[in-house]
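Exercise 7.
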Amino acid sequence: LNIDVYPDAYITHKLTGINGLSIAIDDYPFVLFSFRTAISLNDAEQRFLIGHELGHIQQGKLVCHTANGLLDTLNRSSEILGPMISDAIEVPLKRWCRQSEFNADRAGLICCEDMEVVESLLAKVNEKKSLSPYRIISELHDDHPLNKTRIERLKEYKKQFGLMDSAKLA
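Solution. The predicted structure, written as tokens, is:
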């Protein structure tokens, strides 16, 4: 990924499930991974997730993800102010977050070099919500795209740039 200085990485019990989080404090980025990520993913899946988080750092603008988290907290804690603010900025901010996820997924794919690994990892993360027509439309209000959409976008990316899985290169 052509990263000059790698951020510190920490394993934490504060994140649940299979999860990673890139944050920056005083322009110093670091990455948090859930304990479950550290113990339940194989090396290739970890390469994807580490690459994904490094992709977020490489994109910069981690403040947008922080603002999104604050907006979500405000929505949960204020019945009046939260919806007023979120109506004005939520859809564009969530769209930006989803695009950021697609870009970070590309970095993860570059690191693990195998689409089957990505599909395996996303199956482990698993979407708890059904893929009903309502759920597909409600993706517009989420900060993460559906796993199905993420896989479709990565396949388009591979095809557009002629990327092959490392196993097929051997």
